[in-house]
Amino acid sequence: MKLKYVPNTLSVIRLLVVPLFVWLFLSGNIIVAIILFVFGGATDVIDGYIARKFNCSSALGKILDPLADKALQLSAFVCLYIRDYIPLWMVIAYVAKELSTVIGALIIFKKSKFVVKSNYFGKLATVIVFAAVFVIALFKDSIGSVGVTVICVLVALYFVFSISMYFKQDLIKVLKNKNQ
Questions:
Q1: Please, are residues 154 and 93 in contact by the beta-carbon 8 Å criterion?
Q2: Distance of CA 23 to the CA centre of its chain
Q3: How is residue 27 annotated by DSSP?
Q4: Cα dist. 32→120, 123, 127, 136, 167 in Å?
Q5: Which pTM was predicted?
Q6: Per residue in 116-131, pLDDT tens?
Q7: CB contact set of 14 (below 8 Å; sequence gap of 6+)
């Protein structure tokens, strides 16, 4: 396989991990499901590294990679909710974050033809989601409902912060260009 196809292949693998993860998690194989979840996260890191380092980015990859990320993260939050590990508002907070990111990026693009790209804060949000899912799934009983609630509140607060940082500079650019 040529190196240029590796990032997209890894994104497809991550997408294929989603139904298996859901099945394992909901059938009670939490540890195996979380190992698969971590594997999915690792493919995200590896495909991004290869795409940037070896200039293997593609139009398909720009759609496939975030789609695979969001599918895996959303499925994890939904599974945690279904098994009564997290409250519904946490799933809603995640969906709201993703929708606001997409809608905001579309608005910016429509007004200015400027394509909003992921930044440090968005990448950190992904790491935080993976860490939160990992900790809650494996240590829910140890940390208790208060620990889970604290994690969920902190993650939700970071979502708000990351969205504001995600758009701050891009919105300023759009507004400056509009006023000139």
A1: no
A2: 20
A3: T
A4: 30, 25, 20, 15, 37
A5: 0.90
A6: 777 788 889 999 999 9
A7: 40, 43, 44, 47, 68, 69, 71, 72
